[in-house]
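Morning run. Coffee first, then this:
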Amino acid sequence: MPIFVALLRGVNVGKAKRVPMAELRALLSDLGYTGVATLLNSGNAVFCAPTGTPLKHSAIIAAAISSRLKVEVPVIVKSARELDAIISENPIDAAVHEHSSFLVAFTQDAVALSGLAAIESLIVAPEKFAVGKHAAYLLCAAGILESRAAESLLGKAGKPATTRNWATVLKLQALASDRDA
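And here it is:
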């Protein structure tokens, strides 16, 4: 059965947009998804669905969160295969100790992804930035809080995207692989 990863943008940061992971798991199960698991408290879920596209699942999940949890939140869904491609296509070599300051930006479509190219002008060496076929990648060598590019990616310029650090991306891949076993 196809495996998907749902990424909620901007939940559980401060007091706004609270989405408890137990409620998210219950909501996804109630929608008919199986093998539901969440990762961390930042809006990451892995689930199985016999049919449907990532875009369709994104719309269904966002609508359900809005109606049941009363939270308006962008939801980006990728198939496990797309997540594997995002990882394998990563053009930036980040050392293990840099995984927490290496961001991957996920978008639901290619138009939104290409719009992230504007962040390139904010890159200051030794930062590295690349827009790939399925995601954008930003290594904040001096840390996320010190990076104007990260501030932009996490702010207005990155509004159509949601970001996860590399460590979380790898954990999501492992969680998706567990569903496939």
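Strands lie at 3-8, 34-39, 44-48, 75-79, 102-107, 128-131, 136-139, 161-165. Good start to the day.
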